[in-house]
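Methods, example record. To illustrate the input and output format used throughout this study, we show the complete record for Transferase. The sequence lines were provided to the predictor; the line carrying structure tokens was produced by it.
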Amino acid sequence: MTTKTNRYRIFTWHVHGSYLFYLSQGPFELYIPVKQMAEEGYCGRGNTFPFGSNVHEIPAAEVRNLEFDVVLFQSARNYLKDQYEILSSEQRKLPRIFLEHNTPHESAVNTLHWVDDPEILLVHVTHFNKLMWNNNQTPVTVIPHGVLDFNIPYKGMLPKGLVVINHLEDRGRTLGWDVYREVRQVIPLDLAGMGNGRSAIGEILHPRLPLFRSNYRFLFHPVRHTSLALAVCEAMMHGVPVVGLATTELVTVIENGKNGFIHTDIEYLKEKMGCLLKDPALAKKIGAAGRETARELFALEPFLSRWAKVFEKAIAKNGAPQRAFSYS
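The corresponding predicted structure is encoded as:
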């Protein structure tokens, strides 16, 4: 049986490591399933993120015997398949929340979300995502990203840009593989992330990324259609200038020429990247403005507070008493 605690006991899966790490900074006990044979959502804590003691690995076969306050789905597989394999019938009656990390895939405007249930809360990470998904009859809210400020000063001494995307080639035009290839013909770029082949620099583990990223002149985000990437939020929080496509939620975050550069004209973006390479002072100025924006939009405490309120509301709706929380 899970330990009795004044902190909400959230059962979820390890789907998006960075997001789970930031959520784990809150006053919650997070329980994640693990299997000996690694498969999607069942890798446990893993070795990438410095999770604290409030993130608990649970053997998948034992999950149905434990007590939780909330079930948090994070993928179609979690909702359509996993819950029926590892949760008991009583656990499936608990307050349920679906955290949708992504933009719709099939059609930008007509894709029906997997959840169609007035008893489940659907949480989107951007207002763009909420707008574009067909959310059916499911109640919807938006919780914008929150990231840690590691207080690592921006240096920008490397005259090149950094791209941080996993499996970029495999994910194709949606993530901007073609844009990246075009730009790198004229602008020096390093590609970091898992599954990017020998031409990339490989995965930079999350704890090392802030210091590693601080040395680059700018971050380039070639993505056409996705959620607001945590890599972008993190770069801005740490004063690294961001250059990206003027699509999806990024247009509400970056004001072109003031706290970053965004456009749909790739030639324009190449020109601005060239300016940043030639003018370190400009890069520092743009990065500093981006940092101020990030501190306003992506501070961790409001993010955690919003999640606490969502958990409280979901549990209260199910008849359980609310609890007091501290962020100390």
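Annotations derived from this record:
Residues 97 and 149 are 27 Å apart (CA to CA).
The chain has two domains: 8-146+299-317, 158-297.
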